[in-house]
């Protein structure tokens, strides 16, 4: 019989392990944060209120526009007593205001003022006077254009002032009284007697 060739000896082969397969890892998506605009509120400094004490015998009022009259309110409503207006005097002056007369209520006869009177100039433009009645009575409690006192000497105006504790008009608007400004004295001047001193050096205009 024919002999078969011997089988080759088993070879000790070392099979190298294959390298690991590279599998890329999935990276987590990067989410950028949303930017929300924030509007800042403006910061204002606190208002500073400056308080001051008004001068005596004056009333602080808002300034009026140029050409507009200033009205003075009655500061003492309880003093506005109910009196018949027929007892009030209404002042009338000459063209140059060198001589004055007055009429009582609706009387037609004219009288000559010859003493000190309390007066108001109403919003209608009338100068209402009386020797005893206070300013709120003459104005019937209403606002006025001006108020004060006036002293007459046989129809001539010696002096007048802004003396009124119930209306307290300021001297800056004395022209609203429509009386001669050269005869005007502030209430403080009258208290000092300056009106009597000036009267000696301010002769009346001749008629």
Entry summary:
By secondary structure, this protein is mainly beta. The protein has helices spanning 135-138, 187-191, 194-201; strands at 89-93, 100-104, 116-122, 127-130, 144-153, 156-161, 184-185. A seven-stranded mixed β-sheet has the order 2-1-4-3-5-6-7.
Characterise the protein shown here.
With 207 residues, this protein is mainly beta. It has a domain at 84-201. It has helices at residues 135-138, 187-191, 194-201, and strands spanning 89-93, 100-104, 116-122, 127-130, 144-153, 156-161, 184-185. A seven-stranded mixed β-sheet has the order 2-1-4-3-5-6-7. Strand 1 (89-93) and strand 2 form a beta hairpin. The protein is rod-shaped. It starts with 88 loop residues before the first strand and ends in a 6-residue tail after the last helix.
Let me know the average pLDDT: 81
The CA-CA distance between the termini, in Å, is 186 Å
- Please list the strands of the largest sheet in the order they lie side by side: 2-1-4-3-5-6-7
Alpha-beta content class: mainly beta
- N-to-C series of helices and strands: EEEEHEEEHH
Binned strand content: 15-25%
Our count of helices gives 3
Q: Tell me the total number of β-strands.
A: 7
Q: Which of globular, elongated, flat, extended, rod-shaped describes the shape?
A: rod-shaped
**Rg calc:** 50 Å
State the low-pLDDT regions, or none: 52-65
How would you sum up the major sheet?
7 strands, mixed
Question: Can you give the helix content as a percent range?
Answer: under 10%
